[in-house]
Design a protein that fits this description.
The complex is a heterodimer of chains A (262) and B (402). Chain A has 9 helices and 8 strands. By secondary structure, chain A is of the alpha+beta class. Chain B has one domain: 3-Layer(aba) Sandwich (Peroxisomal Thiolase, Chain A, domain 1), CATH 3.40.47.10. In chain B, strand 1 and strand 2 form a beta hairpin. In chain B, the strands form 3 sheets. In chain B, strands 1, 2, 5, 6, 7, 9, 10, 11, 12, 15 and 16 form an 11-stranded mixed sheet that branches. A 3-stranded mixed sheet of chain B has the order 3-4-8, with no helix packed on it. The chains are: A alpha+beta (262), B alpha/beta (402). Strand 3 of chain A pairs antiparallel with strand 6 of chain B, so a sheet runs across the interface.
């Protein structure tokens, strides 16, 4: 089947990393400009009521913060956007807690922790918090998790969605899982992607390439986080680079960038 | 809220291979026989050391069926079931033929699961030495959600886009929607889709903690239903474009997805998300509700789900629809429910045998005439399958007769 490589306009970007609580802070950091100190240790997305914010897992908070920021940057109503949530591991602190409880006192498994343990917890909280009846999906693909999220988001645009929210996030590993599924700190990144139009400021085009190698993400942002491969794309956008590549299982997903986020 | 009017029709995709393995047995013939005989696969819990009072749909023989030596690094109950299911109904051969026909890089793998191999991770925790897993457990490639998709990629040799969809109990219905989009966007020419979920402590104790499990075999849509029975299952479908028509067992005609935006573990009280998913699936298939002959309901037998689903079905479909839940046969197989019940929908299209609902006697007052407890026999052209998950995540599929 011959078709043009899938493409999308990038309408809005959200990011939350330790010490860099916004996309603007990330851009400043990449340019070597000073970044304001006193960044919060934990994201606090305004769309969740305060009691929900206390109860929600950290991975949900970081995903929702990035998602909310990307939607406001794009000027899109979150309730109108289908969403794709990509996470390599989901919430490892909950996995650790559940497995520990099961090994010791299984009848003490908490019902709230159990329903928060589903991989689509962030997607669920997002649709509930924004009142979105639009489709939401949640996926994992090892180191290719963000790349496969991007593939799904562009496939949704090709299938007729006017715009899609893509969120990538992971959190710190815990307990004995630290050795087998390592991940450090919190990282959330989000893009609002739309069908290409005439006045797009920034466009992204996919080019799967089994022979390509993935670009290295910046070493000084969210180092060791399982979603860090996604930062190669955000760094390329911040720097105005014409292309980058994300790990994609077999080979890499080459991303051509046209225009600027200016 | 999105309107079905905005939903474009899709080109149907050929389902060129299909299989399912459940507590009813391995492969499609075992499913068909048990459905026809109204023989349940549920049994009183005999799994692990779980001290719970409930019934389960357990797949026999997995304990005695280790993975081949070359795949030993993937050892888990979930991958054993994934491997066993892959080798029923000639599916592994059909997948290999698709890889040869289209090229490995053009065959996608999209698998659904809710808990992947967490049962093996639970075992590693039980055996941990201080704060470390024993070396043999730490070395396994099983401790992450994508273990399933990665295992199926390894087992089939496909090298196209590969992902694991994990939206709880809608997971392996959504894989059909994901795959349809990959093919429509030209990112793949064929897709191996499916789902595998196995019994484990997390789901047995988790669903019990939520008080959603019945002490007796589940009774979907019964006025006196009091919870679900958990099961395990695995299954696959191979999807290709229209040119594969001569090999088609059935057609994937439409999919619909929606969010309840209501609660993490309770359905929308008016079934709004369920209705949106069914309407969008019909719109993508270009069908009127009256054209659907059989609907495999999500029908978990929890008090909340079945009432809401029955009302949504009664609001959308004419009285002639034959709708039933097969959870009384298989149990609720969670992330595998989508593929298992899609296989049952395709069997209904191919045999004209429409399963009713097992174990149930007195219909809930919410049930319209669509919800059937008795089986029926008649040819239908289109069959639908509902799968709804935690987080208010809904998916409906429509299949057409080949």
């Amino acid at each position: 089947m011959s078709m043009g490589a899938p493409a999308a306009a990038i309408e809005g970007i959200g990011l939350w990393a330790p010490g860099l609580p916004s996309w603007e802070a990330f851009v400043a950091h990449r340019r070597g400009e000073p970044v304001a100190g006193g960044a919060p240790a934990r994201p606090a997305p305004a769309l969740l009521p305060a009691n929900e914010r206390r109860r929600a897992p950290d991975t949900v908070l970081v995903a929702l913060q990035a998602a909310q920021d990307a939607c406001s940057a794009a000027g899109r109503d979150p309730a109108q956007l289908p969403s794709v949530f990509a996470s390599r591991y989901g919430d490892l602190a909950i996995t650790d807690h559940l497995c520990r409880t099961l090994a010791q006192a299984p009848e003490e498994v908490s019902p709230t922790r159990f329903h928060n343990s589903v991989h689509n917890a962030a997607a669920g909280y997002w649709t509930i918090g924004t009142g979105a009846h639009q489709p939401a999906t949640a996926l994992s693909a090892g180191p290719a998790s963000f790349a496969m999220g991007l593939v799904e988001a562009l496939a949704q645009l090709a299938a007729g969605a006017p715009a899609v929210l893509l969120v990538g996030y992971d959190g710190p590993s815990a307990g004995p899982l630290r050795e087998v599924v390592p991940s450090e700190g919190l990282l959330g990144v989000a893009l609002v992607l739309a069908a290409c139009g005439e006045h797009d400021r920034l466009r992204l085009r996919l080019q799967p390439d089994p022979a390509a190698a993935a670009a290295a993400p910046p070493e000084d942002v969210a180092a060791g986080n399982a979603m860090a491969p996604a930062l190669a794309l955000l760094a390329a956008i911040a720097e105005g680079a014409p292309r980058t590549a994300l790990p994609a299982g077999a080979g890499a997903l080459v991303l051509q960038l046209e225009g600027s986020h200016g | 809220m999105h309107a079905a009017a905005d939903i474009p029709r899709i080109a149907p995709l050929a389902v060129t291979a299909l299989t399912a393995t459940t507590a009813l047995g391995a492969g499609l013939a075992a499913q068909r026989d048990a459905l026809r005989q109204r023989r349940s696969g549920l049994r009183r819990i005999d799994f692990g050391r779980a001290a719970l009072e409930c019934w389960i749909g357990r797949v026999d023989g997995l304990e005695q069926a280790p993975l081949p030596r070359a795949l030993a690094a993937w050892e888990s109950r979930n991958h054993r079931l994934a491997w066993q299911a892959l080798h029923q109904d000639g599916f592994a051969g059909a997948a290999a033929a698709a890889v040869a026909r289209h090229g490995a890089g053009r065959v996608a793998v999209v698998m659904g699961t809710s808990t992947s191999s967490i049962g093996q991770t639970e075992l590693a925790y039980a055996q941990r030495e201080g704060e470390r897993f024993p070396a043999a457990q730490a070395a396994l490639r099983v401790h992450s959600p994508h273990a399933l998709g990665d295992f199926v990629r390894e087992a089939t040799g496909a090298q196209g886009p590969c992902m694991t969809v994990a939206t709880a109990c809608s997971s392996s219905a959504k894989v059909f929607a994901h795959a349809a989009r990959l093919l429509q966007a030209g990112l793949a020419d064929a897709a191996i889709v499916g789902g595998v979920d196995t019994l484990c402590g997390s789901v047995l104790y988790g669903f019990n903690a939520l008080q959603l499990v019945s002490a007796a075999p589940c009774r979907p849509f019964d006025a006196a239903r009091d919870g679900l029975s958990l099961g395990e299952a695995g299954g696959y479908a191979l999807l290709e474009r229209e040119a594969a028509a001569p090999r088609a067992l059935a057609w994937l005609c439409g999919y619909g997805e929606s969010s309840d935006a209501h609660h993490m573990s309770a359905p929308h009280p008016e079934g709004l998300g369920a209705r949106l998913a069914m309407q969008d699936a019909l719109a993508r298939a270009g069908l009127a509700p009256a054209q659907v002959g059989y609907l495999n309901l999500h029908g978990t037998a929890t008090p909340a789900n079945d009432g809401v689903e029955a009302r949504a079905v009664a609001a959308l479909f004419p009285d002639g629809l034959h709708a039933g839940s097969t959870k009384g046969w298989t149990g609720h197989t969670l992330g595998a429910a989508g593929i298992v019940e899609s296989a049952i929908a395709v069997l209904a299209l191919r045999t004209g045998e429409l399963p009713g609902t097992l174990n149930s006697r007195v219909p809930d007052p919410a049930c319209g005439p669509q919800v059937r407890f008795d089986d029926a026999r008649r040819q239908v052209d289109y069959a639908m399958n509902n799968a709804f998950g935690f987080g208010g995540n809904n998916c409906t599929l429509v299949f057409g007769r080949a």
